[in-house]
Design a protein that fits this description.
This protein is an all-alpha fold and 336 residues long. The chain is built from 16 helices and four strands. The protein has a two-stranded antiparallel sheet. Helix 1 packs across helix 5, helix 10 packs parallel to helix 16 and helix 12 runs antiparallel to helix 13.
Length: 336
């Protein structure tokens, strides 16, 4: 039993382990090849986050989903490269929007160079993903285009906020389905589709991917507050400092609307204020860590992970299904 992929996922079957490891190695080579340019500076900027590492969560899902068909099919590795390149491109753009200084434990591209370089590098990665995608056929292009529309729509909805009368938590979960769930669903869909799995299997795995993707992002919301060493390489409390109302904050405000407790109002006032000062941010993080809203966000994360796990029951009982279920358990374990 060897640990591979994100969260220390243990692959318990030797044949599956070999397939997954070989696939991820090929994806890594594909990422380096796809980020090379005739202009050395572009190569340096494009490979900045590739070389910083990362969980390769989406390529791992492609490899596991491919086990429900022919895992040696030629489109599997390129499709995994496409999904990871798309994800990396969004990180370059996200860091500009968030004015982030650290990503995956290294200086963010916008901090190392400037916003223009970061945005254009993200665009370069999108273009390289599109070139690879063109060789995978029109259906693969359509799937990516629809997911990308959902991803961008989710980002815009996050910026715009919920319309009048819309429950903020429901709005936020819809945002996550678009921003994160859509691309994770593409990963599992591509893996199954490129392997030649049946249509019903492809749809089940896409549903699983979307639910797991939301659970994964909710876990990050919790870890932004709860973890001293944030897995993404970002500084703890980054979302709070940027004024992003993630699920723990929304659960706090929901509690205020229901109970109106003075201590909750005081905490929300702190969160709505200027958290650029390290001491104020540390105070906000410490108070959120012991607040019931964080515990509720943990429960929400577990619910999405459990829903993703339940989806898998429609699939054959194989080592790949076991590993996909273990990923759901790992997401819950991350948040305690």
């Amino acid at each position: 039993m060897t640990v591979v992929g994100p969260f220390g996922l243990s692959v318990r079957d030797q044949a599956l382990e070999a397939d997954v490891q070989a696939g991820l190695t090929a994806v890594e080579e594909g990422l380096l090849d796809a980020t090379k340019s005739g202009v050395p500076f572009i190569t340096e900027a494009a490979q900045h986050l590739v070389l910083a590492g990362g969980k390769r969560f989406r390529p791992l899902l492609v490899m596991l989903a491919a086990q429900f068909g022919d895992p040696e099919a030629p489109g599997i590795v390129p499709s995994a490269v496409v999904v990871e390149l798309t994800h990396l491109a969004t990180l370059y753009h996200d860091d500009v929007m968030d004015e982030a200084t650290v990503r995956r434990g290294v200086e963010s591209a916008n901090a190392r160079w400037d916003n223009s370089v970061a945005v254009l590098t993200g665009d370069f990665l999108f273009s390289r993903a599109s070139q690879i995608l063109a060789g995978l056929g029109p259906e693969a292009v359509r799937i990516q285009a629809e997911a990308f529309e959902r991803l961008v729509t989710g980002q815009i909805l996050e910026t715009a906020g919920p319309r009048d009368g819309r429950d903020p938590v429901d709005h936020y979960l819809d945002v996550l389905s678009g921003k994160t769930g859509s691309l994770v669903a593409v990963a599992t869909r591509y893996g199954a589709m490129m392997s030649g799995a049946g249509d019903e299997v492809v749809e089940v795995l896409a549903q699983y991917g979307e639910r797991l993707g939301v659970a994964f992002q909710l876990a990050d919301d919790v870890l932004d507050i709860a973890s001293d060493s944030y897995e993404s390489g970002k500084t703890p409390g980054t979302d709070l400092r940027e004024g992003i109302a993630t699920l723990p904050v929304l659960r706090l405000r929901e509690r205020i609307a229901r109970l109106g407790l003075a201590e909750d109002v005081a905490l929300d006032t702190l969160l709505r204020g200027d958290l650029s000062d390290d001491a104020r941010l540390a105070d906000a993080v410490a108070r959120m860590r012991v607040h019931p809203a964080l515990a509720q966000a943990r429960e929400d994360t577990a619910r999405y992970a459990h829903d993703a796990r339940a989806t898998l029951q429609a699939l054959p009982d194989t080592p790949a299904r076991t590993s996909l279920a273990d990923l759901c358990d790992a997401v819950v374990h991350r948040v305690g």
